[in-house]
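INFO batch 0412 | record 1 of 1 | parsing
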Amino acid sequence: MNPLIYFEVRNLSVRLGGRLVLKNVSFGAPCGALFALVGPSGAGKTTLLRAAAGLTPSEGQILVGDEDVSALSIRQRAQRFAYVPQSDAISWPLPVRDVVALGRYPHGASRPDRLSARDAEAVERAIAEGGLQAIADRPVTELSGGERRRVAVARALATEAPILFADEPTASVDPHYQLSIMSLLRRQAQHGALVFVVTHDLGVAARFADRALILKDGELESVGPSDAVFASKQLADVFAIDIFRCDYASEHVIVPWAAR
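INFO prediction complete | emitting tokens
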């Protein structure tokens, strides 16, 4: 493996219900990057994310450093990968702090009220990073959708995994929480984590991502630095739209403008 590449998938394919939904996808990703996965609905983004995290059976090879993920135990995978699912409904009125503490289970924590000093420190750090101190003792069932999404991200951060997968972390939340969540994820990348984000929001992806990947019909259309991927004609063609592009405050701005 190239020493600059920390995470790599090779010829990754997935069959669901007998149908090939992901077709020989290969790419590498470095540490300290936020990686956006974009593409039309049904392109295979969530499938790719789940397969890369080892949550969906796949063909091909997944490498973390020099480790083949298939050779790792479930606990070892859970220590290396943190996952924020697209839907994170919690029906029990657990305090936010206890929900975040679930992220310590891969490290042997059995109950939120019986954490080791190290586990408790990781939980409090994740709560602080998520800006959740003021609501840490509130039942999660009383929170807004945006607050719940931040709790889900904080739970993943508490795992202290070097790779974080987030599936539509800003879906169905207002602009304030979109910016808050994406800023939080970008900070994690800046601190050395590798962060993968599935999103339909091209504007969010262009602004926050260091690297990007475009999927269409389960196949890799483009991958590379976000500047190049989001500036390409291929992006507009894949989505069948016209795109307005500009820069503002040293950040890239993309606005889907018209359907073709």
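INFO post-check: The longest helix spans residues 175-190.
INFO record closed
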